[in-house]
Please model this.
Amino acid sequence: MDAIDSHRKKFERELSAGTVSLVLLAVLARSPEPLYGYQIAKQLERDGDGVLIGKQSALYPVLRNLCAAGLLDSEVEPSVTGPPRRYYRATDLGRAVLREWEAAWSATRTFVDTVIEGHTP
Model:
């Protein structure tokens, strides 16, 4: 791995760490039904085209933190094909917080794009 690739990967990891909560909350708020971790990871993999760098196991601490903050509810259900699964769904508070986070993300994205494109903010 060359130096440029190394710097890109480091930047992607840092950027991903700052956006995972937003993305997880958005996926769950828009889902018509509760989802378990593997389903969430597969959706992120499919929709994100590899943008979110990391392992599926890295999602679980973020999901637990979102639950502890009252933004998600979870419940464990038995599975006939393996161990029990924990399903997650957004709470009403989670949906309200998501709207605020989306506004903050939009403002941040606009600012960053403006700077990168060389326009005066």
